[in-house]
Amino acid sequence: MEAAQCVLDIQLRYAQVGSSLALAAMAGARRREELIHYPARDVFDPKNGTSFFYHAHRSKKFPINEHGHFHLFFYEKKLNDIVSQSDDFSHFIGLSLDDKGLPLRWFTTNRWVSGEQWRPAGELVQLLPTFLVQTNGRLAPVANWINAMVRLFQPQIAQLLYRRDKLMARHIASSGREFSFENRKLDVITECSASLPAKIKQLGF
Length: 205
Hints:
Elements: H1 2-16, H2 21-25, E1 38-45, E2 50-55, E3 66-75, E4 89-98, E5 103-109, H3 111-114, H4 121-127, H5 140-152, H6 154-175, H7 177-181, E6 188-193, H8 196-203
Antiparallel strand pairs: 1-2, 2-3, 3-4, 4-5, 5-6
Helix pairs in contact: 1-5, 4-6
């Protein structure tokens, strides 16, 4: 319930000033350009070993009304609990927004999409409860919204990750590991709705 309230409160605050999550995610940029990261250096939390950025690009697989999407990452933790952005990272989920800034869908991607260090679903699912991006400035509310969304949809994200591994196992069995992970025709592997009204109804909120 707390996560749901956080998500709704942040979206309402943006709406009250004539903005939205989609506009806020662009970090002050006035024009959206394909494949450009917003913010330019990504939002990176060295203490928690987490990161995200927002961007947009065309794809026949994306919803027509998609404005852009977030990519969310875990970084490999070091012994002193301070993580460098150059360390190995793993993409665990994407989250797309419509042109009104409302969440559309969650999705997982193939290894080549982000150049990640591929980690099994079981490892990523264990990390899900720890996901937290803390930052300052204009993107702090966006980070808080993402943190709450991950908490709110944790079961669905876990299911997508397990399904991702099952589907990739089939591709690997038929085409080989490296070809499958670098297959440009295989980008989005699994997806599901990120509808807030449906989730809130499910929670009885």
